Amino acid sequence: MINKLLIANRGEIACRVIRTAKKMGIKTVAIYSDIDRDSKFVSMADQAYRVGPAPSLQSYLNSQKIIEIAHDSNCSAIHPGFGFLSENADFADECTTNKIIFVGPPTDAIRKMGSKSESKIIMTNAKVPVVPGYHGENQDKDYLFEQARSIGFPVLIKAVLGGGGKGMRIVTKESEFFEALESAKRESLKAFKDDRVLIEKYIQKPRHIEVQVFGDHHGNYVHLFERDCSIQRRHQKVIEEAPSNINWDLRNSIGSSAVDAAKAVGYYNAGTVEFIFDLISNQYYFMEMNTRLQVEHPISEMITGEDFVEWQLRVAQGEKLPKTQDQLKIRGHSIEARIYSEDPYNNFLPGNGNLEFFREPKEEPGVIRLESGVREGDDISIFYDPMIAKLVVWGKDRSAAIGTLNKALNDYKVVGLPTNLRFLRTCSQHPDFLKGEYDTGFIEKHKKDLLQQVTKIENQYIMSAVVSKISQNLKNTKLHSTLQNFRLNHHKSENFILKASAAFINTELKYEVNVEYPGNGLMNITIKNPSKHTVIKRFENVAYTLTTESQINITSSENTVNTDFLIRGEDCVVFNEFGDALHFTFENNLVENRSSTSNDTQDPNIIKAPMPCTLVKVNVKQGDKVSAGQPIVILEAMKMEHVIKAKKDGVVKAVKFRDGEFVQAGKLIVELE
Ligand code: ADP
Ligand code: ADP
Ligand code: MG
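That's the Methylcrotonoyl-CoA carboxylase subunit alpha sequence above. Prediction below.
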């Protein structure tokens, strides 16, 4: 029996596991790194122990220390979550040696499935179809090139120990092979301490379909149907849905292939068998097996009505699987959207920062489920995964689920760091997504539509920003009501110069706003173009009421609108009807002028570190001629490589850092002229 459980993870999955443990009457112990001390998951656990400093190697990957804490706190089991030690067979072994139950599969199965090469050989023997390719030991680059040629381009190079889309490169033609190989090896060495690769036929129009499986210690196996995870960027999932759009014949067949895969390695506990489904030939092929609970497991829970963490804990303490295959049914449709801190407009570069303002949709049991590990005020740090939350919705059919997804996405309001919220919304409203017609190339194919930026914003929001600002200026003075009366009842006017910006606005928007107080307690607000002094829009008889700390109701002769806003120092953030944050900077304020920093991010001559990173390679030296689009620096952050390209033609004026150096966010790396 498990009576006390240590969760060797952090963030949302730690919260998720603790929730079920509580329900089952199991006591929980959290471990935290220094920067996680005040996290939500720490406050949810019955007990919490410090595991080490922020870097995961010294904290969430410090297996020895984790086992020590499990002993000290009398835990009989460890749940590894996903990521970190969840697929680390040595750790699972250490648990067993120390008489602690590892809530997961047998170590032998982790080892076999941890290698994308070995698992493919085992699957071939078990008659599970695998992607054609080279999975052998020979890593000689000319030999690999010959293999790629005989498979036929395009091919995909993958890290043998890969995961999370890292160390993967598509090679469309022979001439690109060696560079891609080098870069894939470099990335996998960093992420997995191993640079072996395999080569696969690159399937051109595939769907990613994966099957949830479970086994117990008594030789029982079931699958809990499949998920479609084809909406991906950087080979990483962003939107997943269950069930996938396949017929029951195919569902039964892919389900039993997945169970065959699990049986072939004597599997027990939760696992996911990933297949690539070729839409052209209607064939599915085994890709890999993930020997853990998966990020997107909630959508399968929603359609089956089962709690997989509960299943995991029951299996781990020796019980039989709670249900047989016949007892499992699909009910309705579920979708998950992963909300990340990242910049979709800059190649999905991971972001970080403080969640200064964080509003979520309302949970509705069985319909809207929020899986998040953060609260307002928390940091999304560069040390861990940049995922902020998962939104999981359920509907009686796919279109009902999409409707709920869109409604709930609109209810998120985030300030402090970049997010992919607007991008998720445009994805989930795209006609092809609505029709269910997509493959793994969806994002790439529709990039232009999905990442469309705008060049103007509605006048309503400019007015709302100014009125919010006025309301706050007045609120901050002690003589609030007297002053307000004075201002509104005496003839007077004031001028504001403000700039609007948002991730999806690709130009500088500057406005002059004149506010008149004609003496009747109301305002007349005129928005003007500051350079031409032409009137863009005039609102008359404007009045406002603060409905909450961060919501203002504004009426004018033409309409009445509720707007959420946030005052950030001298700036004001206004949320549009979709929850997008519009930032307004007031230029004629007495406080410091912030425009200088925002200016040089626009300057195409300046190449700066977009986040704390390590320089992998600077491709240029002083005096080199470069042309627009040319890759200038390769940097590595969060274990991934990012390429920064020149925005314009030019000559390199200065290179400030060398290969291998650590660079802080915002530091100049290369300057052009
Ligand atoms: P999937 O489970 O969908 O195959 P991934 O491979 O993206 O997805 O999930 C595993 C990844 O989850 C890890 O590589 C790691 O980056 C990330 N991860 C690990 N721990 C957490 C956590 N607590 N919260 C969010 N993400 C995490
Ligand atoms: P990881 O361990 O990083 O999750 P996978 O092998 O599961 O790596 O592949 C991740 C994604 O890359 C898949 O979901 C799919 O979109 C794409 N992919 C993988 N193999 C192929 C292939 N042979 N052809 C086309 N796309 C592929
Ligand atoms: Mg995978």
